[in-house]
Write a structure and sequence with these properties.
By secondary structure, the chain is α+β, with helices and mostly antiparallel strands. The protein is about 30% helix and about 50% strand. It has a 6-stranded mixed beta sheet with strand order 2-1-6-5-4-3.
Length: about 130
């Protein structure tokens, strides 16, 4: 098996993170769920870990936006941890549009483990922390 060049890994991982962000802000729950492996785990502060693609779909269904929102994901650092597996650490700022302006609701960090399956990078684990 040939090792995937680092630049291709980074591009694939970032594309998956970007697709997740845009789908989440638009409330496209099925698209979000499709970016997770069947046995994926989602960790969000304040709730028990969400395990499995179907449970993740249900969780995001409950978090669908009720007003315009944006997750700004930046400073993503990708580390190849094994063949077909990578870890990405990203900063995130969550904004919502209120009556007068966009306001910052949360600042935090994602630590993602993604695995490549059939040429597609999928989340195996996403762990979110919030900054005080």
């Amino acid at each position: 098996m040939t090792e995937t060049p680092y630049a291709e890994v980074v591009a694939g991982v970032r594309a998956t993170i970007g697709a997740h962000t845009q789908a989440q802000d638009a409330g496209r729950t099925d698209e979000i769920a499709g970016l997770y492996a069947p046995d994926a785990v989602l960790e969000v502060p304040g709730i028990e870990p969400v395990r499995g693609r179907d449970a993740i779909r249900q969780a995001f269904k409950g978090w669908e936006p009720t007003k315009p929102q944006l997750h700004l994901v930046s400073n993503t650092v990708v580390t190849v941890s094994a063949e077909q597996e990578a870890t990405a650490t990203s900063d995130v700022v969550f904004l919502q549009r209120g009556e007068a302006a966009w306001t910052v609701q949360i600042a935090g960090r994602y630590v993602d483990t993604l695995r490549q399956a059939d040429g597609v990078w999928l989340f195996h684990r996403r762990s979110t922390t919030y900054q005080a």
